[in-house]
UniProtKB/TrEMBL annotation:
It holds the Pfam family HAD_2. It comes from the Bacteria. This is Haloacid dehalogenase. It comes from Acetivibrio ethanolgignens. SUPFAM superfamilies: HAD-like.
């Protein structure tokens, strides 16, 4: 059994924190609350997401200023709050560990951020491979990150289940040849996604139940 986990919105409730961060940063740089941009960039790396920002705002915003105030908000937030863990994460990881599953992370976030959150939550040792957005050339929905995760696990994509919450992530895993499983967070599947996913569960605890029953 091989399982690849997305991070933001799947293991951690970080996308809702990012909405607050971009609301804060948007107001600081004079474009107003911009948290809604999270919905337009779900699953993308920071570099790829700023391309969407450029399409949305053009020269009406300064990218360096946006980065500065986003980092300022996130730094202050995580100095005073633990990373918010999604329901069922710990029980699912423990179940998969006891089942001798090989686990990986495939996150569009930069490596420093991924490792910080995994360490803060006390779960980094569950994973034998960690692939981040700054380790591949193309961001989700390109398949690069899942292909690399499978290579690091030394497993064929067809033998790997991908747990994702975003359209970009689900498409990425599907194109790579993995079995996409959706656990919705901020977004519900459209027809395109419903055609490619192998299952949809309300939370990670329900994913564990599906593994136990043999459904997955």
């Amino acid at each position: 059994m091989n399982v690849i986990f997305d991070m933001d919105g799947l293991m951690f409730d970080t996308e809702k924190v990012f909405i607050k961060a971009w609301d804060y940063a948007g107001e600081k740089i004079g474009i107003g609350k911009a948290g809604y941009m999270v919905y337009k960039t779900l699953g993308m790396s920071i570099v790829a997401s700023y391309e969407i920002w450029n399409e949305e705002f053009g020269n009406r915003y300064n990218q360096e200023e946006l980065r500065k105030y986003t980092k300022e908000f996130l730094k202050n937030y995580y100095e005073n709050n633990k990373v918010p863990v999604k329901q069922g994460l710990y029980v699912l990881l423990e179940y998969l560990k006891n089942a001798n599953a090989k686990l990986a992370v495939a996150s569009s976030s930069p490596r420093w951020e991924v490792e910080k959150h995994l360490n803060d939550a006390g779960i980094i040792d569950y994973f034998s491979a960690i692939v981040c957005g700054d380790m591949v050339e193309k961001s989700k929905p390109a398949p690069d990150i899942y292909i690399k995760a499978c290579e690091m696990l030394n497993e064929n994509p067809e033998e790997c289940i991908a747990l994702e919450d975003s359209k970009n992530g689900l498409l990425s895993s599907y194109i790579a040849g993995c079995k996409p499983i959706m656990v919705p967070d901020l977004w519900q599947p459209d027809e395109e996604v419903l055609q490619i996913i192998k299952g949809k569960y309300s939370d990670l605890e329900q994913v564990k139940v599906a593994f136990e029953s043999g459904e997955l």
